[in-house]
Design goal:
single chain; about 200 residues; alpha+beta; Alpha-Beta Plaits; 2 domains; six-stranded antiparallel beta sheet; four-stranded antiparallel beta sheet
Length: about 200
């Protein structure tokens, strides 16, 4: 659905995802912005070894993807933009990206916390951040070495991002606050490949 009517009768424009050529995300974002489209290209900072020195880079959080708000009445103008490969579709129609997923990703990359790419996660218990700059954001809690991370997913793209969080600042969605012991059990299951049911089960 490209545009739908809300309860107030005001048309709501949907977000969609463009699949780009390799390393053309910024080129596409800049070109479409110049054409008047509302574009979102989430990026994260990382440090890479560059010959004889270290260099901080800003890279796309979801490689090969750029989000566009509405504008599908100008489809030809979008698809003929250099670097655009295709529009992500479902069942032959442009796939809608839920607004709450866009909002969560935007808050993630705009926060002062360390964000990085993460393998896509579909299963496991959902938790919610209780306070701080990411308060209210929901995702899957996993552990990496000594740190805990909240994994946020964009279902339609099967892509995820992760941000380090203080385990005391999260609560299980629809239930009491997760304990360190319960989270460790969930993490152990994810590491050994066991199915993950409700946290602590």
């Amino acid at each position: 659905m490209l545009i739908e009517e809300t309860a107030t009768g005001i048309a709501k424009v949907s977000w969609h995802a463009l699949y780009t050529r390799h390393q053309h995300e910024r080129i596409v974002a800049q070109a479409l912005t110049g054409k008047g489209f509302d574009i979102f290209l989430p990026q994260y900072r990382t440090v890479h070894r560059w010959k004889d020195r270290w260099k901080e880079l800003e890279l796309p959080l979801f490689p090969n993807y750029v989000f566009v708000l509405g504008g599908l009445d100008r489809m030809l103008n979008i698809l003929t933009t250099p670097g655009v490969h295709s529009l992500v579709s479902w069942g032959g129609r442009p796939a809608d990206i839920p607004q709450h997923e866009i909002d969560s990703v935007r808050r993630l990359v705009e926060s002062p916390l360390r964000v990085q790419k993460h393998p896509f996660i579909r299963t496991g218990d959902r938790v919610r951040i209780k306070s701080g700059p990411l308060e209210g954001i929901e995702g899957i809690l996993v552990r990496s070495k000594s740190a805990y991370r909240l994994v946020l997913s964009v279902e339609m793209l099967a892509r995820s991002a992760a941000v380090e969080v203080d385990v005391s600042m999260v609560e299980r969605v629809g239930g009491p606050e997760a304990t360190r012991k319960e989270i460790s059990r969930l993490d152990h299951r994810s590491q050994v490949g066991e199915p993950m049911g409700p946290l602590g089960v």
